[in-house]
Give the backbone structure.
Amino acid sequence: MPTVPTGRTTGRQAPPGVPSPLHHPGLALAAIVGGQLMIGIDTSVVTIALPDIGRETGLSTGGLAWVFNAYMIAFGGLLLLGGRAGDVFGRRRVFVGGIAAFTLASLLGGCAPGGGALVAARAFQGLAAAFCAPSGMALIAALFDGPARVRALSLFSAVTGVGGALGMVLGGVLTEAASWRWVFFVNVPVGAVLAVLAARVLAETPRRPGRFDAAGALGSVAGMTALVYLFIRAGDAGWSDARVAVAAAAAVLALGAFVLVERRAAQPVVPLGLFRDRNRTAAYLVQFLLIAGLFGGNFFLTQYLQDTLGYGPLRAGAAFLPIVLAQFAVVRTVPRLLPRLGAKPLVAAGSLLVAAGFAWLALLPDHAGYATGLLVPFALIGGGAGMSVMPLNAEILARVEPTEAGAASGVSQAMLWSGGAVGSAVVVTAQSGGATAVFTVAAGFAAAALLMVAAVLRRAAA
């Protein structure tokens, strides 16, 4: 990879194979990280507001689950297409366009007159995020090198992990201080500033003409939608319901067709060669499992704090602060440990902490006190998440060819957010068993990630 020069950036496309120089690498990184933080926050900022949204729009519990999952499905399902768009049109152009579209979708969400319009706005947000996120990660891979890339990737990974937990806190503040609509309106001025900043300071990457694998993208979205619907429907109607069986068949067919299309496509959204690297494949699967546990557990925690423990939105949001603070504390040390230890021990330790945190919650009584019951497991969950995200991203980008950086980062983000959608859907199914069942499921996802690390991920220096 080329190093980052200090010459002035003009915003024009550089000669083929050579990124434009960065005049302000700090501002360029701020634009990329700011976009990723906004996207990460919106994966969860709405969850604290769900009770208020349900009262105003009349959405059922299943409908409220779609307010959360419409974003996650569109995001995870279209990320691969978004990564390809960055390769074809230039990653700076796609990144800026994604932020602008996300800002518009947020405005529409805040103005939504009813539940259906709100779900549609959330899907639009997810689509915009799908084009923004992989270009952001790929821009770091293209424009930064050496220690600068390690620092940039560390910060990018930190906001990816912290964004979800921070969204809980911000959602509580906005919902109680104003209304649930402000969890969307707050993105409008922030997104406008980020779009202008990114257009001015980011260097463009070379374009690589190619085709869009629309069939592959459609297959991934259809498969994920059917899979999420399967779990949500099973939670409402039971596993013997006919629609559950239909959804299961549709998920298998759509995801199977997706794999066949990708094997035959001239320019697939998922180059299957990315999975020839054992460590990269393991890192993708660990991402999926770990995020499924984290997002699924946190999705239920927002309801548990408000409905079971009687917290208001502000207090419920503030309850997530130990998770945020623990993540921030841990991610500051990970970049120093990664070159010495490699990814495997860090990801294994992080997965173990997350599993232990949720297992602890599963053993608590229904009305446990915060300081005596919730504080320590919250800190374990936050610390484990912070310890895992950056090493996984580093392992995914290690040894990847520059021409496949967009695709590799797109698959990474797809695994991450698709895992969140599946995890939250599984939690809806497990809610009939109460808090113990839900937290046990979340701990099980993290334990599965730990087993994957132990069995498949090879220990190698970053």
